[in-house]
Amino acid sequence: MSCGEPHETDCSEVLDHLYEFLDSEMPDVDRDKFQHHFEECSPCLEKYGLEQAVKKLVKRCCGHDDVPADLRAKVMGRLELIRSGQTVPEHDVTATAQEN
C-alpha cells in the first residue's frame, strides 16, 4: 500500500512494522519517524487506526482470562532463577499445570 506521495519513511516499511509501533517495541527514533509519517500519510494513519481498534477489541474481549495462581507462582519462580543466574530445572512448568 502506498499513498503515491514521497515520504522520508516508505509506506511499506511503516506497514511492515506497524505492530512494533503499536506495541511500543521500537526505538524512540523509529517511533518518531513513524509518527511523522502518520501525520502526513492519511492511508497509513487509517490503517494504524484500524489496527489499533482491533488490538483494543481483542484485549477487551480476550484479556480477562485469569492465570491459575499455581502456574503464575511457578513461572515467576522460574523467572527469578533465570534472573539470578541459578540453574533452572529441566521439567516443563506448563506440564504440571496441565495435569491439574
Can you put this structure into words, describing what you see?
The protein has 100 residues and is an all-alpha fold. It contains 6 helices and no strands. Helix 3 (28-40) packs across helix 4 (42-62). The longest helix is centred in the middle third of the chain and has 21 residues, at 42-62. The N and C termini lie far apart (48 Å).
Number of strands: 0
Continuous helix count: 6
Shape: elongated
The average pLDDT value, as a whole number, equals 83
Strand count, sense and barrel status of the largest sheet are:
none
Low-confidence stretches: none
- Portion in beta strands: under 5%
Radius of gyration: 20 Å
The proportion of residues forming helix, as a percent range, comes to 55-70%
Structural class: mainly alpha
CA distance, first residue to last residue: 48 Å
* H-E string: HHHHHH
Task: Provide a compact summary of the structure.
68% of the residues lie in helices and 0% in strands.
Core attributes:
100 residues, mainly alpha, elongated, Anti-sigma factor RsrA, Anit_sigma_mycothiol_RsrA, Znf_put
Secondary structure layout plus pairing:
Layout (H helix, E strand, L loop, with lengths): L10 H6 L1 H5 L5 H13 L1 H21 L6 H16 L8 H7 L1
Helix pairs in contact: 3-4, 5-6
Organism: Streptomyces lucensis JCM 4490
Protein name: Anti-sigma factor RsrA
Pfam families: zf-HC2
